[in-house]
Each structure stands twice: as C-alpha cells, then as structure tokens.
From TrEMBL:
Signal peptide: none annotated. This is protein xylosyltransferase. Residues 91-190 form the WSC domain. It comes from Parastrongyloides trichosuri (Possum-specific nematode worm). The keyword Transferase applies. Coiled coil: none annotated. It catalyses: UDP-alpha-D-xylose + L-seryl-[protein] = 3-O-(beta-D-xylosyl)-L-seryl-[protein] + UDP + H(+). It is found in: Endoplasmic reticulum membrane; Golgi apparatus membrane. The lineage of its organism: Eukaryota, Metazoa, Ecdysozoa, Nematoda, Chromadorea.
Length: 786
C-alpha cells in the first residue's frame, strides 16, 4: 500500500512540476507579448505602425529591436550646423506680417499643415530642413516656405503686426501667435542665399604631371558574374584599389569574386557581408565599414559602383576630372522641391531593418534644430578628407550616423546631409558624374517592393539599343557624366557594347582587346543554379537526369551549374546545363543546350477594348520593371509562384483616355493537372511602356494540389470568347513517371558536348569569351585584364 502511495505521490509531484514549468513559460511569454503590445510606460510603442510591425515580425530578436528603436533611441535636440551658408544669429528673425492669398502665396516654394503643436519655431525648422530662406505661419496650422525672390516681389503688401496675431498656436503653445486669416507672419530660417557648384568636363591635359588614386567600392548583387568582370576590365588599373561587397544572400557571386581576389593583388572581397535590400539601413553601414577598412591605403577618392554600372567616358578622362577637383565630393541631389522630397523620401517616419526588410515603426515628429536635409542618388564620389570626417567621432557625424540608422534609403541622403551641414558644404559639386536612366512611370512600382519595405520607391531602367543616344560621348561630356546605369546584357547587350567601345576610345590597342567579330561577342550567360553555392536540388537532379538520358548513355553524378543563354539580344532564351557524369565508366563533363517547349494557342484577332492580344508567356521570377522573366526554366513545384506576362497592341493609338492604360481588363482561369478549375482572376488594365500586363498565382495557396499539365485560359467575359490557352508543367519530385512525362513534353535537348570538346561549341560555358574572361590577371603589355 505504501509503495503504491509513493508511486502516486511521485507521479503527482512530477505532474505538478511539468504544470509549473508550463505555467511559468506561458506567463513569461504573455509578459513578453504584453511588454511589446500593451505597455504603458513607453506609450510610443503603442502607435499603429509599431503594433503592425510587431504583429508581422517572426523573431523575438526583431521585436526587441522595435522596442529599442522606439523607446530608447535618442535624437539630439540641436544639430551643430557649421556650414557657411547657415547663420544661427539670423534664424528666427521676424521680418513682418504680410497680406497673403490662396491664389497667390507670398511664400510659394513649399507648404504644409502642422496639426500638432505648430509654432513659428517649428515652422522655421521645417523650412530650414528644406533649405528655404524664409518661413511663415498662418491660420493656426499652416506653414509656408520660400526664397529671397518671394520677398523681392514689389506687389507684396505689408500689414500691421496685429493682423498676424489673430490666431493663437495650437495646444500646448497658446501663448504664441500663428498668423491670421490671409495674413502671414514671416521669419528668417538662417539659411543664406548661395549658388551650388556643378561639375564641368575637364579637357584631357596630358601635361598634368599628377596622379590620382581611386578606391572603387563594388556593391554587387545577382548572379551575372560575367557582366561584373566585363565592367571591371574597363575600370581596372594596378594603381587603383578595389573593395568588393557581395550581398549576403548571393553566395554564387561571392564565390566568383573570391576567385578573382586570388589573381588580382589590389582586389579585395569583404568577408563581412550584409543583405543589401532596397532602402535598407545596412547599405550605409556596409559603405562606411568597407571604406573604413581601406583607410590604410593611399587613395584620394572613393567611387561606388554596382553590377549594372559601366563607364561611358574613358577612365583616364575621369582621372583628369578628379585631379582638377582635389578635395571636392560629387553628390547628386534630388533636383525637385526640397520639402516634397523630404516627404516622399519617408523622413517623417522611422524605419527599422530586420528580417531582411525595412519596417515603418513610428512617425518622426522630432528633428534636431538647425538641420538641413538633402539627398538624391546613393551613387556617389567622395573625397578622402570628407570620408575621414564622416567616420570620425566629432559630434555632427556621430549624431547623424545614429539618426540615419532609422532613415529609409540612408545612403541616398547621409553624405548629402552631413556635407551641407558642415564645413564641407563648399566642397561639394551637385552632380555625381553619373547618368541614371529614369522612366518613372515604369520604374516606380510599389508591387515589387511590398516584400521588402513598408514604402514605395523607384528604380532606374536598363539601357537598350533604342536608348543609346543618351550615352553618346558628346551628350555625356556636356554634363560631365563619366558613368551610366543601368546595363544588363541579358536584357540588351548592345548598349554595353556601345558603352565599352566609348569608354576605351583612347586605347591604342582597342581593336585587340575588344573583338567585335568574335563568335561570343553577342552571347550572354547568366547563372541560375550552382551546386557549389546552392547545394543539392532533387528536382533539378531528376530533371537533368532525364534530359541527359535522352541524348547520352551515361550515368549522372551531379548537376554543377545551370545558365540562361542568349546568342544575341533578340534571340530566344535557352538553358545550358553543366553535368558531371560517367560514360562507359569514365568520369566526363557534359553540357546540354536545352529549349523550353511552349504549349499555347492564340486566337487570331482577339481584341478587347481596342487592344489586340499579341502573346502570352509563363515563367518564374518576373522582373516587373523590365517585364522579362529572369528564370524561364519553368520547373514549377507546389511551393512556387507562376507568373503570366500578356502582350498587347493598341489598334487606334489616337483614342483619348482620361487614365492612360496600355492593356484592357482580362479574365483568367487556372486549371490543375486534372483539368479542375482552381483559381479565377479578373486582371485589371495596366500601364506599361512595353505594352504588357501581368498576373500570378501562388501555388502554395492551392489546397489538394494536383500535379501534371496545368493550363491558363484567357477570356473576354463580356463576349464569352477565349483569347489564349497556355500550358505549363507542375512537377512532383517524388513521382518519377510525372517527372519523366513532363520533362519529355516541355523540354528539348538541342545540342550537347562532352569534356574539352565543349570549348568548340559557341553556346557552351567553356567556349572562350574574351569580353569577360579573367583567367590570368593583369597583362602589363596589353594593359588589360586577361
């Protein structure tokens, strides 16, 4: 009896122990959640942006970071502005009360409503942030900003001060006056009239017996290592320095750059890496850390470049420009209304980077006094003296480095703001020696940024053959633009050809290093998969095994690489698959040239709302800006996202439209492998410079998914007409029969080669490609990377 009692007692104690553990864990978790979601001691954490962020974040580490950013980050109350264009003694000087009108504002440069705690001083600092000379308060909450030209207007009518003392400022500042009705009280912000300096082309004077050393900071992303190598060739010299950052997520590019590091002594690849997402705070961190790591070198200027940049004026002419501008930094500003720029840039919100995303966590209601904000491009040319100051522990750079941890797109404005608030404000020229190809209606798409940031933004487009006039030598020389961006040989290699020929125009041996008649000159290869970087992939292995067996009696060991391949800008996209195999017992390298076989039907003369359907395509990874598929292998599985690209042509282009669209509404039906309707979509009319339209389906949202041949049907519901049908494969990796059937149906091996013989096949990745090959290093005789 006592033994049984002891057993029950021990079981009860153990059960109570487990119950207590569970209770402690549950209470602790509840306390953590309450700390973030229902706290009382840090009321700012209860704002809607922080709450939304906390609900969406996945990790406790990032939730803790929200707490730190909102509750503990300090902002200095005043900025130490030492620029000669700002006079703190002038700031706040009352200039009088003036008659104002909605039809013709006295201060017309910028206006805003300051609903909470508006005061003359708050309006002064708001206008100062935009670089305006004057500010004015009116009708309680209104704040206006203007320039010297506004007050020089002879039609201005000055009023007695009592007219501007009609309304008291909003609570808690009722002891101050905030203007009257159509009566504006005007104050000086402390900014003085000044003209910005702009760079001009400096003629190449070969009598200049000076040398300039450049630190090129290459900020690389993606997998197009061949284009990076081609770009590097145009800017490489043994006397310059090259520090390389590869996005943390891009292992393939990192591995390829590490190979170059072994043969180029002045080419250093950083082992410390960040996920350089669009607008991310880590962009500024990365830039400062990498440049700081190179301060022991004797360079004079640092120039950052991406994989999409290219020289359009020879490097020796760029060197002359820098020699003539010793001590000068080149920063391109926004070129628009400063007040609007600050709003559009998101400065009135705090952002936090975590989980490879920028989260909007609260409004930024407080800025340091005396702060002027400027910004524009994050592609910059900075002199060594300014970099040393930026990295120093002096008050201004230290305060701005801390503040810019919570700024969206910090690299676009940190150096601008630091420079124009410091003694370096007279050592800045307001262009960055670079041409960026903007088409904002196409490049400003919020959809492509939703997964990355709580904001909208813009990206430049790629230069194509039709755009080459923008980078003609006389055109770029006129504005002193030595670089241009963006270039992409997968989109259009001809623009790179043009830029390269122009960048090397001063080379006496140009015809020996640019082989325009070489068979590979118009070819482009971009890596999609690498065993070394991406690891084993069962789907790719089984797919390649079936393809190999269609052409060779060999045993597949592994798939080492897959590339997209284009033989010319207008050619079809193929795939080159690199394999390790055993053929007749002998290890052999095999390459396959593979074509994806489209299965689609288009109805002739299918028209909706005056738009003629031209084509429909399907694929992975649709680039919403360039409207091309970055991956057309179409190896879809149940976790993938299928994109549809629809091309149209407007029949009567003279038809007026209040809202310009380049495609009509269309209805899509998605059918699974059993021909069961699984999704229906009404696709809205769309505006595209390429006259395309897109839709997508996330396959992991489909329950009880059926593999096999899927199809999408394109319909005009109002006329009950079908315009197109396109099929695509959905693979089941565990079902070999499914794999075999779909591979044979949708893919065709065009050609193949074995071992060293692949060097004779122009599509092969082993085929010599002199425009981008860097095998040995720098050839002193040719003065070129080979």
């Amino acid at each position: 009896m006592s033994l049984n009692f002891m057993k029950y007692a021990l079981v009860s104690i153990f059960f109570c122990f487990l119950l207590n553990l569970f209770f402690i864990y549950f209470v602790q978790k509840l306390n953590i959640e309450n700390t973030y979601l229902n706290n009382t001691w840090c009321p700012n954490l209860n704002n809607s942006f922080a709450q939304s962020t906390l609900e969406r974040l996945k990790t406790d580490k990032c939730k803790k970071k929200v707490f730190d950013f909102v509750c503990q980050q300090k902002v200095p109350s005043i900025l130490l502005n030492t620029c000669q264009h700002f006079d703190a003694k002038l700031k706040g000087t009352y200039l009088g009360c003036y008659k104002d009108s909605k039809n013709k504002r006295v201060l017309s440069s910028f206006d805003t409503i300051i609903s909470i705690s508006n005061t003359p001083n708050k309006c002064i600092n708001t206008c100062l942030r935009g670089g305006y000379m004057y500010s004015g308060v009116e009708f309680i909450k209104e704040c206006f900003c203007g320039e010297e030209s506004n007050l020089n207007d002879s039609s201005l009518i000055k009023l007695p001060d009592s007219y501007c003392q009609k309304y008291k400022c909003p609570s808690p500042n009722e002891n101050l006056y905030c203007g009257g009705y159509e009566a504006i009280a005007i104050y000086a912000t402390g900014m003085k009239q000044h003209k910005r300096l702009y760079p001009v082309y400096v003629e190449n004077n070969y009598e200049i017996n000076k040398e300039v050393k450049i630190l090129f900071l290459l900020q690389l992303n993606g997998r197009n290592d061949r284009q990076v190598k081609r770009m590097l060739k145009s800017v490489y010299r043994p006397n310059h320095y090259y520090i390389v950052h590869v996005d943390k997520r891009q292992k393939y590019m990192f591995n390829e750059m590490k190979k170059l590091e072994k043969i180029l002594p002045n080419f250093k690849v950083s082992d410390e890496r960040w996920s350089t997402i669009w607008g991310g705070a880590s962009l500024l961190t990365m830039y400062l850390k990498l440049v700081e790591s190179q301060m022991d070198k004797d360079w004079d200027f640092v120039i950052n470049m991406s994989e999409s940049d290219f020289l359009v004026i020879p490097l020796d002419e760029l060197e002359v420009q820098l020699i003539a501008n010793k001590g000068i930094s080149f920063l391109s500003s926004h070129g628009s209304n400063s007040g609007k720029f600050i709003k559009k840039q998101g400065f009135y919100y705090k952002f936090m980077e975590c989980e490879e995303r920028m989260w909007r966590i609260e409004e930024r209601n407080n800025f340091p006094e005396n702060m002027y904000i400027d910004g524009g491009s994050d592609w910059i040319v900075i002199h060594r003296d300014f970099i040393k100051y930026s990295l120093s522990n002096e008050t201004l750079p230290r305060d701005l480095r801390n503040m810019f941890q919570s700024v969206l797109l910090p690299l676009e404005s940190f150096f601008h703001t630091l420079g124009y608030n410091s003694q370096f404000c007279n050592k800045i020229k307001a262009r960055n020696l670079r041409l960026t190809y903007w088409k904002r209606t196409q490049g400003c798409r919020c959809a492509k940024l939703k997964k990355t940031v709580d904001w909208c933004g813009c990206s430049p487009l790629v230069f194509r053959n039709n755009d080459i006039s923008f980078i003609h030598y006389n055109t770029v020389k006129q504005k002193a633009t030595y670089f241009a961006r963006k270039f992409d040989d997968f989109v259009d290699i001809t623009a790179i050809h043009f830029a390269e020929l122009q960048a090397l125009k001063n080379k006496k041996n140009r015809n020996k290093i640019i082989l325009v008649n070489d068979e590979s000159y118009n070819h482009s290869w971009v890596n999609l998969y690498s065993l070394e970087s991406d690891g084993d992939n069962e789907l790719i292995y089984n797919w390649a095994k079936i393809l190999m067996e269609l052409k060779n009696d060999c045993f597949l060991i592994n798939v080492t690489n897959i590339y997209t391949f284009k033989s010319s800008p207008s050619s079809k996209v193929y795939f080159v698959i690199n394999l390790n195999a055993k053929c007749s017992g002998t290890p052999t390298n095999i390459e396959l040239l593979v074509d994806y076989v489209e299965e689609k039907k288009l109805t002739e003369n299918f028209i909706i709302n005056d738009f003629l359907l031209l084509d429909v395509k399907i694929g992975f990874n649709l680039d919403l800006k360039e409207e091309i598929f970055r991956d057309s292998t179409n190896l879809f599985t149940k976790t993938g996202t299928v994109y549809i690209l629809i091309s149209w042509k407007q029949q009567n282009e003279n038809i007026a439209s209040s809202e310009r669209k380049t495609s009509p509404p269309i209805y899509l039906e998605w059918y699974d492998g059993n021909e069961i309707l699984v999704a229906a979509q009404n696709v809205s009319a769309y505006d595209s410079i390429f006259s395309n339209q897109y839709s997508f389906l996330e396959l992991d949202t489909i329950s009880n998914i059926k593999y096999g041949t899927w199809k999408v049907v394109f319909k005009n519901l109002s006329k009950n007409m079908t315009g197109a049908i396109i099929n695509f494969p959905l693979f089941d990796v565990s079902d070999f029969n499914n794999m075999h059937f779909l591979t044979e149906k949708f893919y065709k091996v065009i050609d193949n080669c074995l071992g060293n013989n692949c060097m004779n096949f122009s599509w092969s990745t082993a085929f010599p490609n002199p425009k981008s090959d860097i095998k040995k290093g720098y050839d002193k005789k040719m003065e070129w990377l080979v």
